[in-house]
Specification:
The complex is a heterodimer of chains A (about 190) and B (about 110).
Chain A lengths: L2 H7 L2 E6 L4 H15 L2 E5 L4 H10 L7 E5 L2 H4 L6 E2 L2 E3 L6 H13 L4 E5 L1 H7 L2 H16 L4 E7 L4 H7 L5 E5 L5 E7 L3
Helix pairs in contact in A: 5-7, 7-8
Chain B lengths: L1 E2 L3 H13 L6 E2 L2 H8 L7 E3 L8 H4 L8 E5 L5 H8 L4 E6 L4 H12 L1
Parallel strand pairs in B: 1-2, 1-3, 3-4, 4-5
Classes of the chains: A alpha/beta (about 190), B alpha/beta (about 110).
Chain lengths: ~190, ~110
């Protein structure tokens, strides 16, 4: 699957990935997206320090990526609110705080906003706030050049994700090799 | 004590450890864990990180004299892992998805 092509066709795309190959696939996508474009990468399950290591091992061009780290403060490994290349928010469930930081990247014309992942947000928040978060970002993307890529894990919280996914323009279920299994829902961009 | 908000994880870890000969209790989040610790003192707490309620950074300092092993899908760097393991009662960090033998082996290493 060509991730750039998918995002060229849809402003708000949700990819549903299998747990077994989740990190491998999101890192491959990050490498593709950040090669020549600017990316705001929201991590709700990997600390910035671990993500940095993973990006480097996966050949991701980190010069083009700014991270919003939603997990380090929860674990207790970060105390600052901002360091070069990263903003820290208080919790993966702090969606209002997260939206506020993401707005800066919409305003600054970043090419992509990547949300890794809705599954992690759902561990802290109910379906309604996560739906509102997805809806808000999808609407913002319609009015600017920034594309939004959401991820979720196929084996987790399927019932909630069925409803939340309706707010993305397109939902693509992906197999462990990174190929499309099926498109669950498609709406006009 | 297995502390995890996901029912399937709580059930599976409980079953695995009971088959290995341990008595296992569960809690659905950190707050539930603290509440249950008033009535029982487990030999080990397997603590998820991503749970609703009070964050683990605030739960852990309230747990006295019970070893804790994180059991989480959250990825941390090697340096962060070392730093976490340097805290008083944090004994291990078990990454999900975990291997059953590895889980039992790590529990055995901590509590025998």
């Amino acid at each position: 699957m060509d991730i750039k092509k998918e995002l060229a066709e849809q402003k708000a795309l949700l990819l549903v990935l299998p747990f077994e190959s989740y990190n491998k696939l999101v890192l491959a996508h990050a490498a593709t997206l950040a090669a020549k474009n600017t990316v705001c990468y929201v991590s709700l399950n990997k600390t910035f320090a671990s993500l940095k290591e993973m990006f480097e091992k996966s050949g991701v061009n980190t010069k083009n990526i700014i991270v919003i780290d939603g997990i380090s403060k929860t674990v207790g490994t970060a105390s600052a609110s901002k360091i070069p290349g990263c903003y820290f928010i208080s919790s993966p469930g702090a969606l209002a705080e997260l939206s506020s930081v993401i707005n800066e990247f919409f305003d600054n014309g970043f090419d992509y906003v990547v949300i890794d992942s809705l599954t992690s947000a759902l561990a802290y928040q109910g379906k309604a706030p996560v739906s509102a978060f997805v809806s808000r970002l999808a609407k913002q993307a319609q009015d600017c050049s920034t594309r939004v890529l959401f991820y979720s894990i196929s084996e987790k919280q399927q019932e909630q994700m069925d409803d939340i996914s309706s707010y993305a323009n397109r939902v693509v279920h992906v197999d462990s090799r990174g190929e499309k299994r099926f498109i669950l829902q498609k709406a006009s961009p | 004590m297995v502390v995890d908000d996901e029912d399937d994880i709580r059930t599976s870890v409980k079953t695995i450890l009971e088959r290995a000969g341990y008595n296992v209790t569960t809690a659905v989040n950190g707050d539930d864990c603290l509440k249950k610790l008033k009535a029982q003192k487990p030999d080990l707490i397997l603590l998820d990180i991503m749970m609703p309620g009070t964050p683990v950074r605030d739960i852990v300092p309230q747990i006295k004299d019970v070893p804790i092993s994180y059991l989480s899908v959250v990825r941390v760097s090697e340096a962060e892992r070392e730093s976490l393991l340097g805290q008083k009662n944090i004994k291990d960090f078990i990454q999900k998805p975990f291997d059953i033998k590895e889980l039992v082996s790590k529990v055995k290493k901590i509590i025998g």
